[in-house]
Design goal:
Radius of gyration: 22 Å
Shape: elongated
Largest sheet: none
Order of helices and strands: HHHHHHHHHH
Number of helices: 10
Low-confidence stretches: none
Number of strands: 0
């Protein structure tokens, strides 16, 4: 909760304080997406914040062709449009992975096309990790709740139980509680 407060009050201080090492670190962090930041603070505020992130990333490279302000702005707008669900932790991890050369080598240029292609690779990596995590969680659930011991209900049965729970029926309330893992 302290992280979310810092994020809202001082986003650059928050940016400097985060150190995700893996996608799992990203998943464990406060899930405040850039679209939520845009909704809360406005599009111009988000774009300005992302310019700061991007410029600190671009300063890392010593290349022949550097991005001008218009190219940075265009790239940021593409990123916001394509990856609105990403968090600051996603971008911090992405930039660190890119600096390590995990998405490909630099051949004299870092521009919007290169960054967007790297983000595509990061997105595939992120989705694969999310899928692996989901499968592991499903396997744990299956072990704790074998199919033969699990009773399923049809939607109309669920709606009847929900009505009873809304009316205060304790048995129905208990039936609607999620299983403990």
């Amino acid at each position: 909760m302290q992280a979310v407060t810092l994020l809202k009050s001082s986003p650059m201080l928050y940016w400097d304080s985060i150190r995700p090492k893996t996608v799992l670190d990203v998943f464990k962090s406060p899930q405040v997406s850039i679209v939520e930041l845009k909704t809360q603070n406005g599009e111009i505020w988000l774009q300005a914040l992302m310019v700061k992130w991007m410029n600190s990333f671009l300063r890392f490279y010593s290349v022949n062709g550097t991005m001008n302000a218009i190219q940075v702005a265009d790239t940021i707008n593409l990123i916001i449009e394509t990856y609105p669900h990403y968090t600051q932790e996603d971008f911090k991890l992405f930039f660190n992975m890119a600096k390590k050369g995990l998405f490909g080598q630099i051949f004299g240029r870092v521009d919007g096309e290169v960054i967007m292609s790297w983000l595509t690779k990061y997105d595939i990596h992120r989705d694969t990790k999310a899928q692996d995590l989901s499968i592991k969680e499903a396997e744990v659930w299956k072990k704790l709740h074998p199919a033969e011991a699990t009773k399923g209900v049809f939607f109309h049965e669920y709606m009847e139980i929900k009505k009873r729970a809304d009316a205060g029926d304790l048995e129905a309330i208990e039936l609607l509680k999620p299983p403990r893992l």
